[in-house]
Amino acid sequence: MALNENGNKNSELTKRILFTLGMLAVYRLGVHVPTPGVDANAVMAFFKAQNAGIFGLFNTFTGGALEQFSVFALGIMPYISASIIFQLLTSAVPALESLKKEGASGQKKIQQYTRYATILLAIVQGYGMSTWLMNSAGPAGEKLVLSPVVGLLPFKLMTILTLTAGTCFVMWLGEQITDRGIGNGTSLIIFTGIAASIPTSAMRMYELISTGELKAIVALLILIFMIATIAAVIYMEVAQRRITIQYSQRGQMGPQSMAAPTSHLPIKINFSGVIPPIFASSLLMFPATMANFTSTPWLKALQDSLNPSGVIFNILFVALIVFFSFFYTEIVFNSKEVAENLKKYGGFIPGVRAGSSTSEYIERVLERVNVAGCVYLSTVCVLPVVLSSYFQLPFYFGGTSLLILVGVALDTAQQIQSHLLTTKYEGFMKGAKIRSRRVQF
């Protein structure tokens, strides 16, 4: 009986995995569906010429949908932006903070507000991109828009409707994967977009080896370095600083009362995840991108000074990563609330008084851990520039893309492992119930 139940549960896990793969396949097909009214070849040539700006960052997250200007050109980015905004607001706005504490019902309302904000951001971004397409030209001076009218609708209105509908559909795909598939749907969609560029990079490296431009021994050393870097990123992503927590046993007598149960408060080394690099790169790329749309002299000078491979850009990049890491951690992690909860449930840190002393101790540990996390994030994010500038690596490796790939892969693996453990536990419990019934009869 238990084996049959396990088999059914394993088949459910298989269905979830197949459902996830099917939804991701639908997303990848949509990436190649063009937006009506645009010259796809001219738009692709333009975006490839502007690949160093913020377009390159967004194009990576959309899996090439932006440079093709498909119906998924905005991708999941409006939803991510809305989610980050509401995540920060829940810690700053009392009404949203109380809503968050209501549990599942409060989270459902916040999720609904996030969807509305996603649609609003998609409309604003769609209007901006449609206006920019109408006023821009390709590298050879050709128009990016075939006609100002598409069917019965103006091009701007058609583009806004198309891109907003595409974003809503991608958001729906992500929610379906989360509910009926494996892992976080939004993260898996971004993972799929970034992973789609891996075969192209592998073919590029193979062509360089075949033509003799890259020696086989150098390619082997590059491969070993990449594997070692991925292993280091995996280690840092799962690394934790565990603070020992003990719980008092009130009302118990005898020898058992001498040994208080212990637990741990885990604090991740990379507590803020990929949010600091995304914020920092977006902020630095914005002036360079705006300079492409205007002839303002000071913006052009700023664009020249903020070259992604330059020293000034990378110094500012590291500084912003450090700032956003501490800023995000300060907003999300409330050490006073943690200390109050420990005191409420009889928990304490050995050698530290309960209350404000515990809060200060946790805050101090978190700051020290955050320093190590900032060093780690800065090293990984600057790595692509070092490899491409000084070691002439023929493709992009490292940075935010690598952090997302490793983080999502680890999270998905944990989701699958949780399903397997749940299956084994439920099978064991049902088998134990059957055996107990037999004993009773």
As an assembly, this protein is single chain
- What's the N-to-C terminus distance? 18 Å
Strand content: under 5%
Low-confidence stretches: 253-257
The major sheet is characterized as: 3 strands, antiparallel
By DSSP (H or I, 4+ residues per run), the number of helices equals: 17
What's the Cα radius of gyration? 26 Å
Could you explain how this protein is built, in words?
This protein is mainly alpha-helical and 441 residues long. Helices cover 71% and strands 5% of the residues. The strands form 2 sheets. Strands 4-3-5 form a 3-stranded antiparallel β-sheet. A hairpin with a 2-residue loop joins strand 1 and strand 2. Helix 1 packs antiparallel against helix 8 and helix 1 packs antiparallel against helix 17. It is globular and about 75 Å long. The two termini are 18 Å apart.
Could you give the topology of this structure?
Elements: H1 2-30, H2 40-49, H3 54-61, H4 65-68, H5 77-92, H6 94-100, H7 104-135, E1 149-150, E2 153-154, H8 155-180, H9 185-195, H10 198-211, H11 216-238, E3 240-247, E4 262-268, H12 275-291, H13 297-305, H14 311-332, H15 335-344, E5 347-348, H16 356-390, H17 399-440
Antiparallel strand pairs: 1-2, 3-4, 3-5
Helix pairs in contact: 1-8, 1-9, 1-17, 5-6, 5-7, 6-7, 7-8, 8-9, 9-17, 11-17, 12-13, 12-14, 14-16, 15-16, 16-17
In short:
The chain is mainly α and 441 residues long. It is built from 17 helices and five strands.
List keywords for this structure.
three-stranded antiparallel sheet; two-stranded antiparallel ribbon; globular; 17 helices; mainly alpha
